[in-house]
């Protein structure tokens, strides 16, 4: 192979490699642009007859709230419409069955991703081990209540992994496989059941190492835990 031929092949290879990288980058940008963004303003308007990934997201979130129990097939049909109307009525929106920016914003504010639900279930399973089901729901409720409070981080992950917030994070028990009832408890809390009445803290008075936590006002006692604000 002559030097000129080698250089020509190198030039062609380099050009082709750049073109391939550009195409991959472009396809990646397109793929990410098609994913639900998590913001109501960015999501498209959906109504009966709509078919796309956002309908899957809509059905998943309605199911999470107990408002949709059919197949999550990405098709906006009669049952999806019923779920949307029920959601709009529950959250004080115009019950027109059309999913616009206000409905999306309310959905994102009141539902959670699969990762967030898994993290919640892990904390519940570890922190409320041996507690009655109501006590498991109560632990999940504390985390959801913190999400609404300006005193805590603004995300589920931020709340769970805040330094010193949960013993199960510190000792690694959060990474054990959650029991089935923990997921059920998380969904019960998401759907509105809060046995604590708005608690932001919980602890076991027999094992609590922090003196500060015992100074908080107790508003509920469930199982071995007390719940406070």
Automatic annotation (TrEMBL):
The chain crosses the membrane at residues 21-38. The keyword Hydrolase does not apply. InterPro entries: Cell_wall_hydrolase_SleB, Peptidoglycan-bd-like, PGBD-like_sf, PGBDSf, SleB_dom1. Residues 130-228 form the Cell wall hydrolase SleB domain. Gene3D superfamilies: 6.20.240.60, Cell wall hydrolase SleB, domain 1, PGBD-like superfamily/PGBD. It comes from the Bacteria. Pfam families: Hydrolase_2, PG_binding_1. Keywords: Membrane, Transmembrane, Transmembrane helix. Residues 55-107 form the Peptidoglycan binding-like domain. The keyword Zinc does not apply. GO terms for molecular function: hydrolase activity. This is Spore cortex-lytic enzyme, lytic transglycosylase SleB.
